Amino acid sequence: MLIGNSLPSFAPAPSAAPARPLSSDVSPDMLRADLSPVAAAQEQQADSAASGREEADRPATEGRAADSEPSPQEQRLEQLEIAELVQRDREVRAHEQAHAAVGGQYAGAPTYSFKRGPDGQRYAVSGEVSIDTAPVPNDPEATLRKMEIVLRAALAPVEPSAQDLRVAALAQAQAAQARVELAELRREEAAAAEQARDERAQARRDEQQQTGQQQAAQSAPNLDLYRRLGELPAPEPRVDLVA
Fold first, then answer.
1. Closest by alpha carbon to 130, among 165, 162, 105?
2. Where is the composition biased (Basic and acidic residues) (predicted)?
Protein backbone atom coordinates (compact mmCIF):
# COMPACT_ATOMS: atom_id res chain seq x y z
CA MET A 1 0.00 0.00 0.00
CA LEU A 2 1.14 3.53 -0.68
CA ILE A 3 1.24 6.53 1.58
CA GLY A 4 1.79 9.95 0.04
CA ASN A 5 1.83 13.64 0.64
CA SER A 6 -1.24 15.65 1.54
CA LEU A 7 -0.40 18.80 -0.35
CA PRO A 8 -2.89 20.14 -2.92
CA SER A 9 -2.05 19.93 -6.59
CA PHE A 10 0.40 22.63 -7.58
CA ALA A 11 -0.93 25.48 -9.71
CA PRO A 12 1.81 27.88 -10.78
CA ALA A 13 1.12 31.57 -10.80
CA PRO A 14 -0.26 32.66 -14.17
CA SER A 15 2.19 34.52 -16.35
CA ALA A 16 0.63 37.23 -18.44
CA ALA A 17 2.22 39.97 -20.47
CA PRO A 18 1.40 43.48 -19.27
CA ALA A 19 -1.58 45.00 -21.00
CA ARG A 20 -0.75 47.74 -23.49
CA PRO A 21 -2.33 51.06 -22.41
CA LEU A 22 -4.86 52.61 -24.72
CA SER A 23 -3.65 55.67 -26.60
CA SER A 24 -5.33 58.95 -25.84
CA ASP A 25 -4.30 60.47 -29.19
CA VAL A 26 -6.82 61.32 -31.85
CA SER A 27 -7.25 58.73 -34.60
CA PRO A 28 -5.45 59.54 -37.92
CA ASP A 29 -8.72 58.91 -39.74
CA MET A 30 -10.33 61.67 -37.74
CA LEU A 31 -7.48 64.01 -38.68
CA ARG A 32 -7.82 63.17 -42.34
CA ALA A 33 -11.49 64.08 -42.21
CA ASP A 34 -10.54 67.74 -41.64
CA LEU A 35 -8.14 67.91 -44.59
CA SER A 36 -8.92 68.83 -48.14
CA PRO A 37 -9.48 65.97 -50.64
CA VAL A 38 -6.05 66.45 -52.22
CA ALA A 39 -4.30 66.62 -48.90
CA ALA A 40 -6.26 63.64 -47.72
CA ALA A 41 -5.22 61.64 -50.76
CA GLN A 42 -1.59 62.56 -50.27
CA GLU A 43 -1.83 61.67 -46.62
CA GLN A 44 -3.43 58.35 -47.49
CA GLN A 45 -0.61 57.53 -49.93
CA ALA A 46 1.97 58.41 -47.30
CA ASP A 47 0.19 56.21 -44.78
CA SER A 48 0.11 53.33 -47.26
CA ALA A 49 3.84 53.61 -47.87
CA ALA A 50 4.54 53.74 -44.15
CA SER A 51 2.28 50.76 -43.59
CA GLY A 52 4.20 48.79 -46.21
CA ARG A 53 7.49 49.57 -44.52
CA GLU A 54 6.01 48.55 -41.16
CA GLU A 55 4.86 45.20 -42.55
CA ALA A 56 8.30 44.62 -44.06
CA ASP A 57 10.03 45.39 -40.79
CA ARG A 58 7.57 43.44 -38.55
CA PRO A 59 9.28 40.00 -38.63
CA ALA A 60 12.57 41.48 -37.51
CA THR A 61 10.83 43.48 -34.80
CA GLU A 62 8.95 40.44 -33.55
CA GLY A 63 12.14 38.38 -33.58
CA ARG A 64 13.87 40.96 -31.47
CA ALA A 65 10.93 41.03 -29.03
CA ALA A 66 11.05 37.24 -28.67
CA ASP A 67 14.76 37.33 -27.88
CA SER A 68 14.54 40.30 -25.55
CA GLU A 69 14.63 40.06 -21.76
CA PRO A 70 11.30 39.51 -19.95
CA SER A 71 9.62 42.52 -18.52
CA PRO A 72 9.95 43.31 -14.80
CA GLN A 73 6.42 42.05 -14.19
CA GLU A 74 7.18 38.75 -15.93
CA GLN A 75 10.35 38.41 -13.90
CA ARG A 76 8.41 38.92 -10.68
CA LEU A 77 5.88 36.28 -11.71
CA GLU A 78 8.66 33.82 -12.49
CA GLN A 79 10.32 34.50 -9.15
CA LEU A 80 7.02 33.88 -7.36
CA GLU A 81 6.53 30.61 -9.22
CA ILE A 82 10.06 29.47 -8.41
CA ALA A 83 9.56 30.34 -4.74
CA GLU A 84 6.34 28.31 -4.66
CA LEU A 85 8.07 25.37 -6.33
CA VAL A 86 10.94 25.51 -3.85
CA GLN A 87 8.53 25.52 -0.93
CA ARG A 88 6.49 22.68 -2.44
CA ASP A 89 9.63 20.62 -3.07
CA ARG A 90 10.72 21.09 0.55
CA GLU A 91 7.32 20.09 1.95
CA VAL A 92 6.93 17.05 -0.31
CA ARG A 93 10.37 15.70 0.54
CA ALA A 94 9.89 16.25 4.27
CA HIS A 95 6.50 14.52 4.10
CA GLU A 96 7.76 11.41 2.32
CA GLN A 97 10.98 11.16 4.31
CA ALA A 98 8.95 11.20 7.53
CA HIS A 99 7.02 8.15 6.29
CA ALA A 100 10.20 6.31 5.30
CA ALA A 101 12.12 7.14 8.49
CA VAL A 102 9.41 5.92 10.87
CA GLY A 103 8.33 2.96 8.71
CA GLY A 104 11.81 1.45 8.84
CA GLN A 105 11.99 -2.04 7.37
CA TYR A 106 8.32 -1.98 6.38
CA ALA A 107 8.59 1.20 4.25
CA GLY A 108 10.13 1.62 0.82
CA ALA A 109 12.19 4.50 -0.51
CA PRO A 110 10.30 7.69 -1.41
CA THR A 111 9.45 8.29 -5.06
CA TYR A 112 8.63 11.73 -6.44
CA SER A 113 6.91 13.42 -9.36
CA PHE A 114 8.72 16.50 -10.63
CA LYS A 115 7.88 19.77 -12.39
CA ARG A 116 10.41 21.88 -14.24
CA GLY A 117 10.38 25.49 -13.17
CA PRO A 118 11.05 28.65 -15.19
CA ASP A 119 14.69 28.43 -14.12
CA GLY A 120 15.04 24.98 -15.70
CA GLN A 121 15.35 23.17 -12.36
CA ARG A 122 13.22 20.13 -11.44
CA TYR A 123 11.10 20.42 -8.30
CA ALA A 124 9.21 17.64 -6.50
CA VAL A 125 5.49 18.41 -6.49
CA SER A 126 4.15 15.05 -5.21
CA GLY A 127 5.47 11.78 -3.84
CA GLU A 128 4.67 8.45 -2.27
CA VAL A 129 6.16 5.71 -0.08
CA SER A 130 5.17 2.05 -0.26
CA ILE A 131 4.53 0.35 3.08
CA ASP A 132 3.85 -3.27 4.00
CA THR A 133 0.52 -3.63 5.83
CA ALA A 134 0.20 -7.44 5.64
CA PRO A 135 -0.12 -9.31 8.97
CA VAL A 136 2.60 -11.71 10.07
CA PRO A 137 1.29 -15.26 9.45
CA ASN A 138 0.47 -17.26 12.59
CA ASP A 139 2.04 -14.67 14.89
CA PRO A 140 -0.45 -12.12 16.26
CA GLU A 141 2.11 -10.66 18.64
CA ALA A 142 4.51 -9.88 15.77
CA THR A 143 1.58 -8.55 13.74
CA LEU A 144 0.65 -6.21 16.59
CA ARG A 145 4.19 -4.84 16.81
CA LYS A 146 4.31 -4.38 13.03
CA MET A 147 0.97 -2.57 12.84
CA GLU A 148 2.04 -0.18 15.59
CA ILE A 149 5.03 0.80 13.44
CA VAL A 150 2.87 1.12 10.32
CA LEU A 151 0.41 3.33 12.22
CA ARG A 152 3.17 5.64 13.42
CA ALA A 153 4.65 5.80 9.91
CA ALA A 154 1.31 6.72 8.34
CA LEU A 155 0.79 9.55 10.82
CA ALA A 156 4.42 10.70 10.90
CA PRO A 157 4.04 13.82 8.67
CA VAL A 158 2.79 17.05 10.16
CA GLU A 159 -0.27 16.97 7.89
CA PRO A 160 -1.21 13.38 6.97
CA SER A 161 -3.01 13.00 3.66
CA ALA A 162 -6.29 11.18 3.09
CA GLN A 163 -4.34 8.16 1.88
CA ASP A 164 -2.18 8.32 5.01
CA LEU A 165 -5.32 8.25 7.16
CA ARG A 166 -6.65 5.24 5.24
CA VAL A 167 -3.40 3.36 5.87
CA ALA A 168 -3.56 4.32 9.54
CA ALA A 169 -7.14 3.02 9.78
CA LEU A 170 -6.10 -0.26 8.15
CA ALA A 171 -3.20 -0.62 10.57
CA GLN A 172 -5.53 -0.02 13.51
CA ALA A 173 -7.94 -2.67 12.23
CA GLN A 174 -5.12 -5.17 11.75
CA ALA A 175 -3.82 -4.38 15.23
CA ALA A 176 -7.27 -4.90 16.78
CA GLN A 177 -7.59 -8.28 15.07
CA ALA A 178 -4.12 -9.22 16.25
CA ARG A 179 -5.06 -8.32 19.84
CA VAL A 180 -8.10 -10.60 19.65
CA GLU A 181 -6.01 -13.47 18.29
CA LEU A 182 -3.30 -12.82 20.86
CA ALA A 183 -5.81 -12.87 23.73
CA GLU A 184 -7.26 -16.15 22.48
CA LEU A 185 -3.79 -17.62 22.13
CA ARG A 186 -2.89 -16.58 25.66
CA ARG A 187 -6.10 -18.12 27.01
CA GLU A 188 -5.24 -21.37 25.28
CA GLU A 189 -1.70 -21.22 26.61
CA ALA A 190 -2.99 -20.54 30.14
CA ALA A 191 -5.41 -23.48 29.92
CA ALA A 192 -2.65 -25.75 28.65
CA ALA A 193 -0.33 -24.60 31.42
CA GLU A 194 -3.00 -25.22 34.05
CA GLN A 195 -3.66 -28.69 32.68
CA ALA A 196 0.05 -29.43 32.75
CA ARG A 197 0.22 -28.29 36.39
CA ASP A 198 -2.70 -30.55 37.28
CA GLU A 199 -1.06 -33.48 35.57
CA ARG A 200 2.20 -32.88 37.40
CA ALA A 201 0.38 -32.60 40.73
CA GLN A 202 -1.47 -35.86 40.07
CA ALA A 203 1.78 -37.55 39.13
CA ARG A 204 3.35 -36.38 42.39
CA ARG A 205 0.38 -37.70 44.37
CA ASP A 206 0.57 -41.06 42.62
CA GLU A 207 4.28 -41.24 43.28
CA GLN A 208 3.82 -40.37 46.94
CA GLN A 209 1.11 -43.01 47.31
CA GLN A 210 3.28 -45.66 45.71
CA THR A 211 6.21 -44.71 47.90
CA GLY A 212 4.03 -44.96 51.01
CA GLN A 213 2.85 -48.40 50.06
CA GLN A 214 6.40 -49.56 49.52
CA GLN A 215 7.51 -48.20 52.87
CA ALA A 216 4.56 -49.87 54.62
CA ALA A 217 5.40 -53.17 53.03
CA GLN A 218 9.02 -52.94 54.15
CA SER A 219 8.13 -52.11 57.77
CA ALA A 220 5.64 -55.04 58.25
CA PRO A 221 7.06 -58.12 60.25
CA ASN A 222 8.08 -61.15 58.26
CA LEU A 223 5.83 -64.07 59.37
CA ASP A 224 7.06 -66.61 56.87
CA LEU A 225 9.49 -68.13 59.35
CA TYR A 226 6.78 -68.69 61.91
CA ARG A 227 4.53 -70.26 59.32
CA ARG A 228 7.24 -72.67 58.25
CA LEU A 229 7.97 -73.63 61.84
CA GLY A 230 4.32 -74.32 62.41
CA GLU A 231 4.24 -76.63 59.46
CA LEU A 232 7.01 -78.90 60.87
CA PRO A 233 5.79 -82.28 62.33
CA ALA A 234 5.64 -82.55 66.08
CA PRO A 235 8.47 -84.69 67.65
CA GLU A 236 7.61 -88.21 68.93
CA PRO A 237 7.79 -88.72 72.73
CA ARG A 238 10.69 -90.91 73.89
CA VAL A 239 11.43 -92.67 77.25
CA ASP A 240 15.02 -93.32 78.18
CA LEU A 241 15.49 -96.39 80.42
CA VAL A 242 18.52 -96.44 82.57
CA ALA A 243 19.74 -99.82 83.88
1. 105
2. 52-67, 189-208
Residue type, 171: A
Half-sphere exposure of residue 122, counting CA atoms within 13 Å on the CB side?
4
- The model carries a pTM of 0.56
Strand partners, 2: 130
Question: Among residues 157, 153, 79, which one has the least CA distance to residue 119?
Answer: 79
Strands (E), the chain: 2-4, 111-116, 122-130
Among candidates 32, 9, 159, which has minimal Cα distance to 99? 159
Residue 64 lies in a domain: no
Asked whether residue 118 is assigned to any structural domain, the reply reads yes
The answer to whether 103 and 157 have CB atoms below 8 angstroms apart is no
Q: Check the CA dihedral 104-107-109-115 and report its sign.
A: negative
Domain count within the chain = 2
Summarised one tens digit per residue, pLDDT across range 224-242 is 666 776 676 766 666 556 5
Range of the domain at 138: 133-213
Distance CA 142, CA 89 (A): 36
